[in-house]
Design brief:
Blueprint lengths: L2 H7 L14 H12 L10 E5 L3 H10 L4 H5 L2 E8 L1 H9 L9 H24 L3 E5 L6 H7 L6 E10 L13 H4 L11 H17 L9 H9 L6 H8 L6
Antiparallel strand pairs: 1-2, 2-4, 3-4
Organism: Acidithiobacillus ferridurans
GO molecular function: FMN reductase (NADPH) activity
Keywords: Flavoprotein, FMN, NADP, Oxidoreductase
């Protein structure tokens, strides 16, 4: 165990922030840390928009489920998968940009996730709280219009940064036996491990510091993945010129 291990194992989403502002230079340094994440073939297909205009941020919050912490966080970033930059590079190099490739879409989306996680680790190492906002994909076209995103760019998620005003319970994770396999995929983990985890999650949900409920992991996953989720995304991505073949 070292400080980095402890930091990573202590991650929790923060949804209440103090009024303390975050210095511009600090946000820039956090984003620089994101730039040093691994990038497939060094494409660097991530663009980050820091939303400093209060009205614009409020509009994004509205389209992202009216989550107040989008408005109140010390800083709010929108992470975009960006193949528009690459298309321009191809054009200037005299090469045709091949649009719509699923592999390119995966490369860009994974780049964004790695970039953002570096930012989260950097921010939390400084005592800041973070919260990903996947709900920007609730209304991706409206948010893309607000942010004037060109074709070949889409908002993957937002990220709140700020000084924490809460210390929520640490959410338990699945037992390692469930997620770590050796050599081949198998389902040999003891079913009791999931049952034990469900019991831990039920305890967590019943006693956490906000929106308590009587539920458990299996129930939550079945409720989420047992229904359609943002079916508009496929048409939206194809309209952006992405993920069509």
């Amino acid at each position: 165990m070292n400080e980095t291990f402890a930091l990573l194992k202590n991650h929790r989403s923060i949804r209440q922030f103090t009024d303390q502002p975050i210095e511009v230079a600090l946000v820039q340094d956090i984003v620089r840390c994101g730039q040093h994440a691994a990038s497939s073939s060094n494409v660097q297909a991530c663009t980050v928009l820091q939303i400093t205009d209060a009205d614009l941020r409020s509009q994004i919050a509205h389209w992202a489920g009216d989550q107040d912490y989008v408005r109140s966080a010390g800083a709010f970033l929108v992470f975009c998968a960006d193949l528009h930059r690459s298309s321009g590079i191809c054009h200037r190099a005299g090469t045709e940009f091949v649009a719509g490739m699923t592999e390119h879409f995966i490369i860009a989306t994974v780049d964004v996730a790695l970039f953002a996680q570096n930012c989260v680790i950097a921010a939390e190492s400084l005592g800041l709280g973070t919260c990903y906002i996947g709900a920007v994909r609730n209304h991706p076209q409206e948010i893309s219009t607000l942010l004037e995103l060109p074709d070949q760019v889409y908002p993957v998620f937002g990220l709140c940064l700020g000084y924490p005003k809460q210390h929520p319970n640490l959410k338990p994770r699945l037992p390692l036996s469930v997620v770590l396999k050796e050599n081949r995929y198998n389902e040999t983990a003891d079913p009791g491990d999931i049952a034990h985890y469900d019991a831990r999650m039920n305890e967590y949900y019943l006693h956490r510091s906000f929106t308590r409920k009587d539920s458990h992991w299996t129930q939550e996953v079945a409720g989420l993945l047992g229904r359609e989720a943002r079916p508009h995304m496929r048409a939206f991505l194809q309209q952006r010129g992405m993920n069509s073949r």
